[in-house]
Amino acid sequence: MEARAVYNGTVSWLTRFLGGSRQSSLDEVAGEVGSPPSPAERVPDDPGASLEAWAGSLGLSVEAFEARGAPLLPEEAATAEAVLSHFDAHRPGPASFPSIALKILDLVRDPKMDAIGLTRTIELDGALSSGMLVLANSAVFRGVSRVETLREAVARLGLEEVARVATALSTRTLYRGVRAEFDLFGPTWNRLFYHAATVARAGSDLARARKLGDPDRIFLGGMLHDVGKSLALRSLAALLLADRVPQHEAAAVDRILHHVHVPVGAEAHREWGLPPGLSAIAERHHLSENAPGGERTDLHVVRLTSALELLRTSPEVSSSAPAEAVGSARALGLGPTRVRALRTGLAEHGEWVRMLFGDETGGPAAVR
Predict the structure, then answer these.
(1) How does 131-169 read in b/e, with b if 16+ C-beta sit within 10 Å?
(2) Radius of gyration (Cα) for the chain, nearest Å?
(3) CATH number of the domain bearing residue 291
(4) Model pLDDT for residues 123-175, shown as the tens digit of each residue
(5) CA angle 285, 290, 291 (to 5 degrees)
(6) Cα–Cα distance between 329 and 63 in angstroms, integer?
(7) Is 314 a member of any domain?
(8) pLDDT at residue 181 above 90?
């Protein structure tokens, strides 16, 4: 397999992720990271394990499950209301959603999908085509020769990898404002994109490894579950440029975006006319009353991976993340041991995403 040959000689974790999620599993991750725990350290892999066991698995204190987020300060609350009003007056129209992402989703769910069909779909979008070529020739995927065509890129990366990268690349347009807005909050927009891409990749891998839900819909759901933060950031930037709100420090901006992102994201999904399953992920991923099983499986996979990633990178943003992680893990029938493995693997997924899409300054110029 040509794509596999390219990966030989790279470090082991990169080989595993680039080789495709069908070959990765939580058991492999748990077995490769660090030395095995002693019998006294082992956590029972039981979804009904005690809160103490879950706390140990997540590296938290038991008190973290009872924490309640502090309300916004008055000036932050005023800005949050201004953001909601601005978004309501400047809602994104249906055409603002990169519909090619849904086309790619439909393709990868078709058992008859082939390289020719996927290539032709990507070729419909010139920016996506050029971006795919840039990434296929990046340090992450680069082989012994330069890729010159999309067909060569598909052969090098494989159908599954091309679909995931193309979906992430096409939805990245939602994580950018106009140039003046991006200059104000560039690192924040990139951080939001990295969170979405890491959750999407880790969630789809978890779904495949454990046969949970629809991995491809989970990938797109992961890319879009927090899109309300990006859209709210556009409104915040526009208000700031118009001198209608004060400048807030970075931590306050994170609190404001977290406060407003669910209603903004839910409204955007409705404006775009996205499938109900995707919209439910955006609208319900912070709710506590999410029943297990059925159509909610995709939601719980995204909710679990998103909560774990927030705990890893931004624990101060969401006080409900510990309870969300445990609640969705239990709904999926996962115990502390497997969640511990997923938590460990998230760091590797996050590093992979940053290597592929660039650093905090915005990534490869050709895909901006």
Answers:
(1) bbbbbbbbebbeeeeebeebebbbbbbbbbbbbbbbbbb
(2) 20
(3) 1.10.3210
(4) 989 889 998 998 888 888 877 788 899 998 888 888 888 999 999 999 998 99
(5) 145
(6) 19
(7) yes
(8) no
User: Taking the mean position of all CA atoms in its chain, how far away is CA 226?
Assistant: 8
- CA 246 – CA 223 distance, rounded (Å): 30
Under 8 Å between Cβ of 189 and 233: yes
- pTM metric for this prediction: 0.83
Domains: count for the chain: 1
Using DSSP, state whether 293 is helix, strand or coil: coil
**Which residues, at least 6 apart from 35, have a Cβ–Cβ distance to it below 8 Å?**
none
Report yes or no on 202 lying in a domain: yes
Residue 203's nearest CA partner among 317, 345, 101 is 345
**What pLDDT, on a 0 to 100 scale, did the predictor assign at position 111?**
82
- Rounded-to-integer distance, Cα 164 and Cα 105, Å: 9
Q: Which domain holds residue 337?
A: 63-94+177-367
Within a domain: 320: yes
DSSP secondary structure letter of residue 173? G
Is residue 84 within 8 A of residue 239, CB to CB? The reply is no
The residue to which tokens 């990268």 are assigned: 165
Would the pLDDT of 3 be above 70? no
Q: CB under 8 Å to 110, separation ≥6 — which residues?
A: none
